[in-house]
């Protein structure tokens, strides 16, 4: 999970160029432009790729985060999604609906007790059996090492209650426990992952790939095919994942043929890269969204003002011109492919005239002709706060500043880090807060809504609506999936009407491929990217 | 001499502790809760919700609720033992990460300084002996100009010309000499003005000294007197200058490293500032100060060995 | 006549000063008068005109938000020069005070103050400014504080040395003997003696401070978007260096020209007032 937040810090943080691998190491024979970014690793890779036959290829990935820690409990996204080393009990399909994985079935005995039946005959990479005892250890280990998992899953403990049966008890009822077992940090790992004193040796999972080597000084993770995989083995023989934190570097490495696949390319380079002969760019929407939270204690206490602000956002321009197509206007909180999304909602309308009318109804008029609306002698002026870790945010802030000026609002933009934002919000010195939000951290229809619309969570921003609490409580108690989805839809409708948070654009991701990479299938549930095991490389 | 060295070392240690205390105080003034920083970097995602419960857990885990003085005290105590704390962001020991970065910075910095030194010292000596000549004026204008170019912009312009337009040099990677050229040139341009000017001024000063006048009156030619007397006496200030530049290598390449994504200590410091990784920031700052103090110490000892007056006079300070 | 002017303004001693003055006048024109002539809103976006190359209409082209780069460079001059002047002013004021106090008081006060100065000077200036900004957060005021916090130590050291030398000079005991108060001595003897040197150092530091300010903003620690601060503009343009290099190049040229002018001016003033002193200050 740790990796999610980091999407593209590299782009935001100054810096044009780069590297991230070896250091003046031996690379004789290869010219600068065409050589691998990661000296020694790269050389190996190149030779392997050249001499290998089909089905025995190496995929070189340019990962967007520096790889300095490969603990599956805190860096699960890397190990599970990007390296396919570990697997989880419950998978999801591309509509975010649960599918069996390491667990073949699960049921809740009562509100706090769940029984998971494990797939039989699965072995960890070190040859040990993935049995109930091992799985229970893995879950308890994750909870102990990463206490935040207790908060989100509400698990008290896991224990083996049969050879292939694990019983999980929760502290408080969690109707979506199986959904939370899909969290990457909840991946099932073998005991061999840690040594006797609890230090990480290397991640041992059950996945189609196993960790061969992790070079912590160059930040390169090398994984190889697990030939004893319990399902169809992968077609690739080997994958190297190199941390390249700078988006321009990734773009250039891809262009130079140093890597075969990467994600999050610079917005303004997308068109140019796609036109290259050896590169292909594909854009998708991920389960993330650019949000605009309103300070309802201040200027945005009036629903009409919030609605007007949302109507004055030209989302199409933002997605086309600011995000260069990496993202689409957000109609609703969730994207249409999520099974619980109410697709009848369209909150992306741009109507400046209607917005102006709403502002006037709310009593905000520009009486002194300076282009800024006033009410009771107070100008409509506020600060938009945001952070730079998501490179799209400052750009969106800049665009909104200009767009809201048309509506007669004076916006000052201020970027700061997370901790400072928390403090600033506490003091109430803000108007809107622009943030990237993961809408399906777990494939849950309620989790995100509960985190953002319960009174407990909205009270600090000056918005309280008991209707939300009522619906949320209903949703959390609904152990039946269909009922839960229905409740979720009701909450979505209310949320888009009340607008304590407006939604700007879906968070788009741009993947760059070498033309040699074939059969890639986009997985919408991935946090950055996730590749399918039947991906192939042609000569 | 031994007493002098011991005195300098003690003095250096005091300054280093002062630096660590000062930076600790500055860092502790930062708004926001460190627990939130740790939480978002180590345990959950940026886009995920922050729960007060988790904030509390982390606060306890990292003992963040102790009074400042105690926090500094335990930091200092551990730092002396070699434990510089754990990075909020990378969840790895600070010291280990810094050690891994130092060689990268030194390679870049020493190469750049070496070239700058070789270029500017001879020119500095030449213009000092030919003051107000054409070369003097031209070199002066050039140094003023070099000193007016922001390194981050120079780096971008070099990239624009040599990589984007001409495709002569790579901007990515660090495998061969070709990769070092651009960052090195950028750093060098920043070093040349000061190196050249200090050489020129200290040489000029020596040239005006009494013994030079005496030497001339003894009938030595200008050239002879320069070689016999002036050069030797120019050494201490030039060594001091070289020491100063070397001492600033660790901390002087923050911008260049950031732009060229060179994985040195400057980039590490910058990243830690951006992500509010205070233990890492503190570690980088102290490392940079140690680098400076140690090179100053070496300078003091070397110049004292050359010129006894200095150690009798108690050194520069 | 021609020769007269030449010798008056372009004698060896004065040439840098004269060029510096001319450049400064040009800068002053664009900074003070410029915004009235090119008065378009430097922050208004126009996505229909993204990344247009330089032309008659847009002298320096437009940026990725369709804003006129020339207008932004002009309005950015205010910011950069304003910040630099504020930093130099505040830094000099603190530095002079500390320097005089240290030099005047001597003893433990002197030792402690000078150790602090030493500590400050043992960093490359940018590091401490980075740490302060990282702590205080973004913003122009914070940038001024951060840079001034670094600058003062330079003045303090210089002023202390000068104060001590004035104190040790022959006429001071005499002045003390005739009953001049401490404050009077400071204002009567010490300040007039050091002011020339402080002016030289202050003028010489305007250029570097402008560059330091731009560097901090470039690194994202200073001015905030969509402010037309030069460093920030260069940062915003670097992603577009392939398609629209003018976004990066134009504000950089402005920064180089401004810093160069102030450096020439500082050198020129130094040449006029006391060439030897300036060299001493450099060696320090």
**Largest sheet of chain B, if any?**
none
Radius of gyration of chain A, CA atoms, in whole angstroms: 24 Å
Q: Output the radius of gyration of chain B.
A: 24 Å
Number of helices of chain B: 15
Q: What is the third-level CATH name, the topology of the domain at 107-278 in chain B?
A: MetI-like fold
Overall geometry of chain B comes to flat
Q: Provide the CATH superfamily of the domain at 107-278 in chain B.
A: MetI-like
Give the beta-strand count of chain A: 20
Average pLDDT of chain A, rounded to a whole number, is 85
Bin the strand percentage of chain B.
under 5%
Largest sheet of chain A: 10 strands, mixed
Helix content of chain A: 25-40%
- Helical proportion of chain B? over 70%
Derived structural class of chain B? mainly alpha
Tell me what the structure shows.
The complex is a heterotrimer of chains A (539), B (317) and C (284). Chain A is α+β, with helices and mostly antiparallel strands and 539 residues long. Chain A has 18 helices and 20 strands. Chain A has helices at residues 2-5, 9-12, 39-51, 76-82, 132-145, 148-153, 177-180, 247-255, 270-275, 303-311, 315-322, 352-361, 392-405, 418-427, 447-453, 455-458, 466-477, 481-498; strands at 58-63, 90-92, 98-100, 103-110, 113-118, 155-162, 165-170, 209-215, 220-225, 238-243, 261-263, 279-294, 374-375, 378-379, 381-386, 410-415, 432-438, 501-514, 517-518, 536-537. In chain A, strands 8-9-10-1-11-18-12-17-15-16 form a 10-stranded mixed beta sheet, with helices on both faces. Chain A has a 4-stranded antiparallel beta sheet with strand order 4-5-7-6. Chain A has a two-stranded antiparallel sheet with strand order 2-3. In chain A, helix 10 runs antiparallel to helix 12 and helix 17 (466-477) packs antiparallel against helix 18. The longest helix of chain A is centred in the C-terminal third of the chain and has 18 residues, at 481-498. Chain B has 317 residues and is mainly α. In chain B, 77% of the residues lie in helices and 0% in strands. In chain B, helix 13 runs antiparallel to helix 14. In chain B, 49% of the residues are buried. Chain C is mainly alpha-helical. Chain C has a domain at 76-224 and 255-280: MetI-like fold. Chain C is 76% helix and 0% strand. In chain C, helix 5 (125-136) packs across helix 6 and helix 9 packs antiparallel against helix 10 (246-273). The interface between A and B is large, with 66 and 60 residues.
């Amino acid at each position: 999970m740790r990796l999610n937040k980091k999407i593209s810090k590299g782009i935001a943080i100054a810096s044009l160029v780069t590297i991230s691998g070896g250091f003046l190491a031996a690379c004789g024979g290869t010219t600068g432009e065409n050589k691998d970014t990661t000296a020694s690793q790269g050389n190996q890779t190149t030779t392997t790729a050249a001499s290998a036959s089909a089905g025995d290829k190496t995929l070189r990935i340019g990962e967007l985060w520096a790889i300095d820690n490969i603990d599956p409990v805190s860096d699960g996204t890397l190990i599970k999604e990007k390296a396919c080393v570990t697997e989880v009990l419950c998978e999801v399909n591309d509509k975010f609906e649960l599918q069996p994985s390491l667990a073949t079935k699960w049921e809740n005995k009562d509100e706090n007790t769940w029984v998971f039946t494990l797939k039989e005959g699965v072995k960890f990479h070190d040859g040990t059996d993935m049995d109930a005892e091992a799985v229970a250890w893995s879950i308890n280990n994750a909870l102990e090492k990463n206490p935040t998992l207790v908060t989100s899953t509400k698990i008290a403990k896991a224990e083996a209650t049969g050879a292939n049966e694990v019983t999980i008890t929760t502290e408080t009822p969690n109707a979506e426990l199986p959904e939370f077992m899909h969290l990457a940090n909840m991946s099932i790992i073998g005991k061999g992952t840690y040594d006797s004193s609890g230090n990480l040796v290397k991640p041992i999972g059950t996945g189609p790939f196993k960790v061969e080597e992790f070079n912590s000084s160059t930040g390169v993770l090398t994984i190889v095919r697990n030939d004893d995989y319990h399902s169809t083995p992968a077609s690739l023989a080997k994958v190297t994942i190199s941390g390249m934190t700078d988006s321009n570097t990734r773009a250039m490495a891809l262009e130079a043929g140093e890597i075969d696949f990467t994600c999050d390319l610079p917005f303004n380079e997308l068109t140019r890269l796609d036109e290259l002969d050896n590169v292909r760019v594909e854009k998708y929407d991920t389960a993330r969204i650019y949000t605009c939270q309103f300070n309802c204690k201040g200027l945005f206490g009036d629903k009409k003002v919030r609605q007007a602000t949302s109507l004055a956002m030209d989302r199409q321009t933002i997605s086309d011109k600011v995000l260069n197509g990496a993202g689409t206007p957000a109609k609703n909180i969730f994207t249409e492919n999520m099974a619980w999304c109410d697709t009848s909602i369209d909150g992306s309308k741009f109507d400046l005239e209607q917005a102006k009318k709403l502002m006037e109804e709310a009593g905000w008029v520009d009486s002194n002709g300076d282009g800024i609306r006033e009410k009771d002698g107070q100008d409509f002026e506020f600060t938009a706060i945001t952070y730079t870790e998501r490179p799209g945010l400052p750009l969106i802030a800049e665009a909104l500043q200009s767009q809201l000026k048309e509506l007669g609002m004076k916006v000052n933009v201020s970027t700061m880090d997370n901790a400072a934002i928390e403090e600033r919000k506490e003091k109430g010195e803000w108007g809107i807060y622009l943030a990237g939000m993961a809408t399906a951290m777990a494939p849950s229809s309620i989790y995100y809504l509960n985190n953002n619309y319960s009174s407990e969570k909205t009270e600090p921003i000056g918005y309280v609506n008991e209707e939300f609490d009522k619906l949320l409580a209903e949703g959390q108690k609904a152990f039946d999936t269909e009922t839960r989805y229905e409740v979720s839809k009701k909450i979505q409708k209310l949320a888009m009407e009340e607008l304590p948070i407006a939604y700007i654009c879906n968070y788009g991701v741009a993947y760059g491929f070498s033309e040699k990479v074939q059969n890639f299938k986009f997985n919408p549930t991935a946090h950055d990217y996730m590749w399918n095991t039947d991906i192939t490389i042609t000569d | 001499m031994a007493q002098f060295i011991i005195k300098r070392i003690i003095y250096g240690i005091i300054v280093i502790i002062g630096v660590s205390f000062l930076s600790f105080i500055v860092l502790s003034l930062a708004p926001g809760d460190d627990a939130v920083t740790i939480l978002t970097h180590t345990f959950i995602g940026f886009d995920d919700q922050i729960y007060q419960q988790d904030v509390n857990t982390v606060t306890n885990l990292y003992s963040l609720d102790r009074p400042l003085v105690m926090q500094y005290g335990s930091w200092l105590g551990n730092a002396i033992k070699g434990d510089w704390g754990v990075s909020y962001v990378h969840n790895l020991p600070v010291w280990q990460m810094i050690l891994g970065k130092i060689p990268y910075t030194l390679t870049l910095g020493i190469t750049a300084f070496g070239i700058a030194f070789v270029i500017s010292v001879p020119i500095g000596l030449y213009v000092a002996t030919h003051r107000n000549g054409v070369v003097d004026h031209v070199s002066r204008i050039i140094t003023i100009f070099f000193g007016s170019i922001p390194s981050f912009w120079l780096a971008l312009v070099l990239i624009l010309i040599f990589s984007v337009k001409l495709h002569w040099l790579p901007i990515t990677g660090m495998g061969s000499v070709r990769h070092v050229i651009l960052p090195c040139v950028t750093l060098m341009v920043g070093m040349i003005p000061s190196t050249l000017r200090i050489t020129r001024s200290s040489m000029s000063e020596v040239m005006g000294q009494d013994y030079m006048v005496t030497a001339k009156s003894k009938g030595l030619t200008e050239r002879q007197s320069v070689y016999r007397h002036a050069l030797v006496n120019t050494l201490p200030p030039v060594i001091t200058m070289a020491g100063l530049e070397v001492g600033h290598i660790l901390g002087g390449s923050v911008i260049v490293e950031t732009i060229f994504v060179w994985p040195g200590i400057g980039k590490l410091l910058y990243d830690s500032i951006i992500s509010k990784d205070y233990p890492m920031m503190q570690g980088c700052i102290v490392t940079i100060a140690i680098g400076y103090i140690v090179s100053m110490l070496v300078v003091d000892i070397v110049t004292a060995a050359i010129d006894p007056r200095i150690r009798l006079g108690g050194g520069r300070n | 006549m021609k020769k007269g002017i030449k010798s008056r303004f372009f004698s060896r001693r004065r040439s840098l000063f004269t060029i510096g003055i001319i450049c400064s006048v040009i800068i002053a024109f664009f900074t003070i008068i410029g915004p009235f002539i090119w008065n378009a809103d430097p922050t208004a976006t126009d996505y229909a005109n993204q990344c247009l190359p330089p032309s008659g209409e847009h002298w320096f082209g437009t940026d990725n938000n369709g804003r006129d780069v020339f207008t932004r460079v002009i309005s950015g001059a205010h910011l950069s020069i304003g910040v630099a002047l504020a930093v130099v002013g505040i830094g000099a004021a603190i530095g002079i005070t500390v320097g005089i106090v240290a030099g005047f008081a001597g003893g433990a006060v002197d030792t402690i103050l000078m150790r602090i100065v030493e500590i400050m000077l043992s960093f490359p200036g940018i590091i401490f400014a980075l740490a302060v900004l990282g702590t205080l957060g973004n913003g122009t005021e914070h940038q001024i504080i951060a840079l001034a916090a670094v600058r003062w130590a330079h003045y303090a050291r210089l002023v202390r040395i000068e104060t001590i030398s004035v104190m040790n000079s022959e006429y001071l005991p005499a002045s003390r003997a005739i009953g001049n108060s401490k404050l009077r001595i400071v204002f009567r003897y010490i300040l007039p003696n050091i002011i020339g040197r402080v002016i030289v150092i202050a003028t010489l530091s305007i250029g570097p401070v402008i560059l330091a300010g731009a560097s901090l903003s470039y690194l994202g620690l200073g001015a905030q978007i969509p402010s037309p601060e030069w460093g920030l503009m260069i940062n915003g343009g670097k992603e577009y260096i392939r398609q629209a290099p003018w976004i990066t190049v134009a504000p950089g040229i402005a920064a180089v020209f401004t810093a160069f002018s102030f450096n020439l001016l500082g050198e020129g003033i130094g040449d006029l007032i006391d060439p030897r002193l300036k060299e001493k200050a450099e060696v320090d």
